[in-house]
Amino acid sequence: MFLDQTYLFTPGPTPIPNRVNAAMAQPMIGHRSPDFSELIEDVATRLKPIFGTKHPVYALTSSGTSALEAAVVNTVAEGEHAVVIVAGSFGDRLATIAENYGVNVHRLNIEWGKSCSPDELEDFLKNLSGIPVKAVFATFNETSTGVLNPVGALGETVKRLTDALFIVDGVSCIGGVPVDMEADHIDLLVTSSQKALMLPPGLAFVAFSDDGLKAIKSCPAKRFYLDLNRYVKAYNEQKSTPFTPAVSLIAGAREVCAMIEEEGWENVISRHNLLKDMIRAGIRELGLPLLTSDKDASPTVTAVQPDSVAAPDIQKALKADFSITIAGGQKKLKGKIFRIGHMGYCTPFDVLKVLSALELTLVKFGQEPRLGTAVRKAEEVWIQHV
To answer: Whole-angstrom Cα distance, residue 69 to residue 90?
Structure first.
């Protein structure tokens, strides 16, 4: 066994293409130079279709959580009211961030493993009638459960019933799912680099609507590094960033944009849906229960809830025997599920690899051999797209 051959199937970080690594290894340029101005403008422009926006996409040198914090602190002040849809660990994190800033948070709690329906949100908002809700926060793709929320329908509900901003955490799906900020009524959309965008951790990206920009400019909340006004001003006036950026990562982001353009954006979306369908078909063939329904399933991460072998044991065996790294459960799902990431630099062949390893691993734990069955089922899905 060549132990240096490792395989990463977590929902972040994700594998990095060789050509992106090569782009990040180029000689350093000054972050206040014309070269960097050209670089940041190129990236901010080429990310537009991925975010479904007509405005530049701004880069922050920080984690995805910082982007969530920026989404809060730039739009909702202490004492104001916000609704947060909590359908998993990251919805909970978003609510906690807002609570820590003194926001009056109204949590719409959804069963973990299910999406939030527009009807549930409508009923919740109607029950808050008379309360001046400043913003509604939603998680586009709940990483902890493998659920994709119907963001467009939720945004329509928000705008029909309230004057609130609609703010979306797109950390684990932007770069792998279609989005149209205007049609989906999104005022602020954030993501990070280490998921579907095929980069190392260290960058966060933010896009906003005209109304979102107005809210950012008028929000009285105190902030400094995460003050998005600074990023807008630096970009508009100097094609730069207000603070020292991760230059190499941004160079990598330009190469990611090139790869997406070469594949074609619609093909990128189709590939992620194919990976989802393949992994779910294979998992079902192995008799392993899936946490989510097909309707709610994420194109970028799949959660599995085994009932005969402990999820952490499967996770450990895949790592020890095949150098395959998958993710476990979080918070109330810790020890109960394992999660397979299939986003960004991931192909149908990669899905066959992890399914083959799962077939062998289940035999190791005394399960009836189903060798080749999951792979065959996934291939049957794939052949329909070839």
So the answer is: 12
Q: Which CATH class is domain 18-261?
A: alpha beta
Residue 295: alpha-carbon gap to chain centroid: 18
Share of the chain above pLDDT 70, in %: 99
pLDDT tops 60 at residue 1: no
Pairwise CA distance, residues 79 & 384, whole Å: 54
Report the candidate in 307, 62, 119, 221 with the shortest Cα–Cα distance to residue 108. Answer: 119
For residue 15, how many other CB atoms are within 10 A of its CB? 18
Residue 161 CB coordination number (10 Å): 17
Mean pLDDT along residues 130-136:
97
Range(s) for CATH 3.40.640.10 in the chain?
18-261
The two three-digit tokens of residue 323, written as one number:
């150098």
- Among 317, 380, 329, 310, smallest CA distance to 352 is for 380
DSSP per-residue letters across 118-161: HHHHHHHHHHTTTS-EEEEEEESEETTTTEE--HHHHHHHHHHH
Write out the H or E segment, with its range, that includes residue 318.
helix 311-322
Cis preceding linkage at 13, omega within 30: yes
Structure tokens that stand for 11 in this block: 């929902």
pTM listed for this prediction: 0.96
From residue 15, give the alpha-carbon distance in Å to each of 18, 193, 270, 345: 9, 12, 19, 6
Instruction: Check if CATH label 3.40.50.720 holds for domain 7-14+265-383.
Output: no
